[in-house]
Design brief:
With 433 residues, the chain is α+β, with helices and mostly antiparallel strands. Helix 4 crosses helix 9 and helix 5 crosses helix 9. The strands form five sheets. Strands 6, 7, 8, 9, 10, 11 and 12 form a seven-stranded mixed beta sheet that branches. Strands 18, 19, 20, 21, 22, 23 and 24 form a seven-stranded mixed beta sheet that branches. Strands 1, 14, 15, 16 and 17 form a five-stranded antiparallel beta sheet that branches. It has a single domain, classed as EvaA sugar 2,3-dehydratase subunit (Nucleoside Triphosphate Pyrophosphohydrolase), CATH 3.90.79.40.
Length: 433
């Protein structure tokens, strides 16, 4: 197929028609099944860990955590161990001088609406090396056979530190000049158009959001002393957060009940481990089974922002999560699952909950990683606040400019995946920088 595109002066009506057509004629089925019905996945009889017969993809195992900070100092939980580094890559090409980004209509088994807008390539190493014995990942060659002068973004970024053990993906944006054959489930879109789509619930997926958040700013001037102070604050938090983790057998996680079709916390909070059977018409493999993590309720993720001397500042939280490579990453002001806080809430959550509508600049429900999580949604918000926050701030909170936060995305292990979604929304949807 020749290169079709939606130019910067065209509305998204044609996109929505295309999306509706794909949705209506795509045959997908995702069903909960007992663990005993998993194919090529086994529960180890000794440890209870869930592993694939090939030894690839990922393992569901146990993790014991000890932390000197926070309301809970010790716990154990299931966690996904996926040590391989996947590729999240977007191709960009200029049409009439305007950059367009090649986006994919992709099915993931955990997506609440099955199809979401995804990067050009979204593949684990097991997938793009064809460990599943399926078809080749489309456009993978643009990201494995690189010309350095065409690379706009290439950085390792973490995923959910509460559910993944030291998981990272290679976030990439590669510019091309030659004609790119356009496959059926792909479309070129401008950043403005993607920004519009970011206001639609559960449309732009997590992997697209994290890649686009890493786009470099057109201007990088700033206060060198302030940047040094920011890095020193973050380093101090990392150095003083004493979090110890230990991998344990899944059977040994405490307060988690193992049932025929789920592993769930005894109080009904947090998340469950479940199994699904999948049939798909647009994937490299047409049917499979797998485990997924399913959260118990809608999460809330929010940045409080303010404007100082004409520049946008965000209230960031240096938060520890047990699966992070360096224990701590910079996250949003508020990031929590209300159902897991029956007797309270984290700092500043009340400001988000009680915010006047005129202070809310962004408010959209977006899905998390649909390849590993089932029906995982967060309400993502950006809210402007007065300067009447309590002073001094807690030591792990700090005001920093959006420019500083975006600058940190050129480096690994600084900014968590939830904060990256909000950076993407602020830049593409709100036009902030």
């Amino acid at each position: 197929m020749s290169e079709a595109r939606y130019g910067p002066d065209r509305s998204l009506d044609e996109f929505h028609s295309w999306w509706k057509e794909l949705t209506e004629r795509s045959a997908f089925r995702v069903e909960r099944i007992p663990f005993a019905d998993l194919r090529r996945w086994r529960m180890d009889p000794g440890t209870g860990d869930i592993r694939h017969d090939s030894g690839r993809f990922f393992t569901v195992e146990g993790l014991r955590v000890h932390s000197e900070r926070g309301p809970v100092h010790s716990w154990s939980q299931p966690i996904i161990n996926q040590p391989e580094i996947g590729i999240l890559g977007i191709l960009v090409k200029r049409f009439d001088g305007v950059p367009h980004y090649l986006m994919q209509c992709k099915m993931e088994p955990g997506n609440i609406n099955v199809l979401q807008l995804s990067p050009t390539v979204q593949a684990t190493r097991s997938n793009f090396t064809r460990a599943h014995q399926g078809s080749q990942v489309a456009y993978i060659e643009y990201f494995t056979d690189l010309r350095p002068d065409r690379v706009l973004v290439d950085v390792l970024q973490s995923e959910h530190g509460s559910w993944f053990l030291r998981k990272r993906n290679r976030n990439m944006i590669v510019e091309v000049e030659e004609e790119v054959p356009l496959r059926e489930n792909f479309r070129w879109l401008t950043l403005d158009q993607i920004g519009e789509l970011l206001r639609v619930d559960n449309l732009v997926n997590m992997d697209a959001r994290t890649v686009l958040s890493c786009l470099p700013l057109s201007h990088t001037s700033g206060d060198a002393a302030a940047d040094t102070a920011l890095r020193s604050w973050f380093t101090e938090i990392c150095a003083t957060h004493n979090v110890r983790t230990q991998s344990i057998p899944l059977r040994e996680v405490e307060r988690w009940e193992h049932r025929a079709d789920e592993i769930a916390h005894e109080d009904g909070h947090h998340f469950k481990v479940v199994a699904v059977s999948v049939r798909a018409t647009t994937r490299e493999v047409s049917s499979w089974t797998q485990p997924l993590f399913q959260p118990c309720g809608l999460g809330v993720v929010a940045f409080l922002i303010r404007r100082v001397a004409g520049e946008v500042q965000v209230l960031a939280h240096a938060r520890a999560e047990p699966g992070f490579v360096d224990v701590v990453e910079i996250g949003p002001t508020v990031q929590y699952q209300p159902s897991s806080y029956p007797d309270g809430s984290p700092p500043f959550a009340d400001l988000v909950r009680d915010a006047a509508p005129e202070r809310i600049h962004y408010d959209t429900v977006l899905s998390e990683e649909g390849g590993r999580f089932r029906n995982a949604e967060n309400r993502y918000m950006v809210l402007e606040t007065d300067d009447d926050l309590p002073e001094p701030l807690p030591e792990d909170y700090r005001w920093l400019t959006l420019r500083q936060l975006t600058g940190l995305l050129a480096h690994r292990n600084y900014v968590n995946v939830q904060a990256r979604t909000l950076v993407c929304a602020m830049r593409l949807t709100l036009g902030l920088s």
